Amino acid sequence: MPHFQSKSSFWSRAGRVARGARHFASPRLGGLWILLGDFQGADRRIALLSWILLLRSALLLEVSSKTLIKRALEGTLVDSSRRGDSDRARIIEIFSAVDNRFPVRLSCLPRALALRTLLRFAGWDARLRIGVQKESTEVFSGHAWVEVESVVVLDTTANVAHYHALRYE
Fold first, then answer.
1. Quick one: pLDDT at residue 57?
2. Which of 42, 103, 134, 139 could pair with 27 in a Cys bridge, judged by C-beta atoms 3.0 to 4.6 Å apart?
3. Higher pLDDT, 152 or 5
4. Distance of CA 162 to CAs 33, 53, 72, 133, 134, Å?
């Protein structure tokens, strides 16, 4: 006779497995459920939305990068009344945890696009910044990051200081 676990014991076991692993248990979708076991309630919704936005950004950049980037750079008005109880630091912490366990290591642009979308959805006026390396080297280097209220998030100010943010109109 098969043994069936209740949902609560499944999430408890999945959470223990996830806490013991640094990355997804596997690159399959099943790893997502282990990741979500680490979070409860609203945090679980933020984690799931983060995962979906990372996947969406990566796929859309492959298909129509010019349109996606143009829309992200243009920005739209943000309804700050939607902010509610959403704590910016907690959203970024959850996004970072999901990003670290995402099955594929994404470059800075899809990560920045996904985080910008998540923060704007939560009512924060997040800005996508794209920059080029300041030092004149033989190799052209670019970087993308997100700023909220002129504060760099999910990156370090020291890292961003090496890049000159492009102006767009």
1. 86
2. 103
3. 152
4. 38, 27, 22, 6, 6
Do residues 109 and 75 make contact, with C-beta atoms less than 8 angstroms apart? no
CA dist., res. 85 & res. 72, Å (int): 25
Over the chain, what is the mean pLDDT?
75
Say which residue the tokens 């939560």 belong to.
Answer: 122
User: What is the token pair recorded at 148?
Assistant: 């909220």
Average pLDDT over residues 121-150: 86
Pair 100, 92: CB distance under 8 Å = no
Q: Confidence band (pLDDT; 50, 70, 90) for 92?
A: very high
Q: Residue 133: phi, psi to the nearest 5?
A: -65, 135
Joined tokens for residue 34: 């282990």
